[in-house]
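Running co-folding for alpha-D-galactopyranose.
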Amino acid sequence: MNDRRAYAPGRLNLIGEHTDYNLGYALPIALQFGTTVTFRADPESTVLTAVSDSEDGRVDIGLDTSPGAVEGWGAYLAGCVWALREAGHTTPGGRLEITSTVPVGSGLSSSAALECAVLLALTADHDLPRHELARLAQRAENDYVGAPTGLLDQLASLFGEPDNALLIDFRSLDVTPVPIPFDQSVRILVIDSRAPHRHAAGEYAARRASCEAAAAHLGLPSLREATPDAWRELPEGTEKRRARHILTENARVLAAVDALRGADLVQLGRLMNESHTSMRDDFEITTDHIDLIVETASELGALGARMTGGGFGGSVVALCSADDARRITADLPAMIERAGHPTPTIRDVRPGAGAHLL
Ligand code: GLA
C-alpha cells in the first residue's frame, strides 16, 4: 500500500480571542510552517505506531482506544483515531511518522496542526469535508485529551490561504478570506515569549464556564445572541467583565475586517491594542511578561500588538511597518531579557496555505 502524506499548518490569530466557543468571530491566518505526517497502512495490524521528531518516544495506539488510554502528545493522535471510530470511519493500523516545524507551547497551535495532518493522512481515501475534519479534531481535543477548546485552530489550519486572513463566523462556520495589503510594506511579527502557555490547566475551562454562565444569566443560549451592550445588564463582577471582553472582541473582529478591506492599518493596529487591553483587564488571560512584550513592541513603533492564542504565555502578534519590524527584531529581545525573562524569538510571518495532501 502506498504511503499517504499530509501537511497541516499552525495558526496565528490576528484578533478574536476566546470568541470561538462563544459562537462569535475571529480573524486568524494559517502559518507557513506546520506538521507533516506520513502514514503507511498495515491492514494486518490493530495498532498505530507513531514516531515524532519533536516529541519524545514512540507511541502505540490500539485501534480500539478510548479516552484515558493514551496520555501526553500521543493523546492528540489517539483522540483522532477514537473520534474517527465514533463517527463510523474505520482506520487501518500502521505507522505514522511525524515531523513538525511548529514550536510546541508557543500558542501557535502545534496541537491542531498535528490533529489536522493526522486526520487528513488517515482519511486520504475518503475525502471528508473540511468542516467534518475540523469537528473530528475538536472532538479528539475536547473528549479524549480533555481540553474544552473551540474550533478556531482547526478551521484556521484547514482553510488557510496564502496572503489572506480568515474571517470565521463560529455560528454558521463560514470562513471568508480577507486579503492582507502586503503591498503597503506591512509586516506581521510573531514574538514567542518562550514561556509555555498552559490553557489545559483549568483557567481556560474557567473562562468558558464564566461565559456560559453570563449567557445563561441573560437568558440566552450563547453570548452570540446578546446585543453588543448586553454585558451592562449583568451584576458587577467576573461574569460581567468576561462577557464585556467577548462582546467587544466580536465587534473588534468585524471592525478589523473593515480596516483590512480599507487598507487602514493604523485602525487595525488600534483594534489589536484594544483587544490586548480587554484580554488583560476583562478576560484576565495575560501575564506581566506578555504585557511587557506588548508594551515594548508598541514603544518600538508597532501599529498594534496583542497576545495571541489561549493565554497565560505563548506568543504576541505585532503589526508594523518594515522599518519598525527591523527595530523590534533588533532591540526587543535584549530589552525583555534585561527585565529578567527568557529571550523571546521573533519571526516575520505571512499567511500560508491550509492543510493538504502531499
Ligand atoms: C486556544 C483554543 C481555541 C481558542 C483560543 C483562544 O487556542 O484551542 O479554541 O479558544 O485558545 O481564542
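Result summary
Residues 13, 17-18, 20-21, 109, 149-150, 152-153, 199, 309-310 surround alpha-D-galactopyranose (CB under 6 Å).
The longest helix spans residues 238-261.
Job closed.
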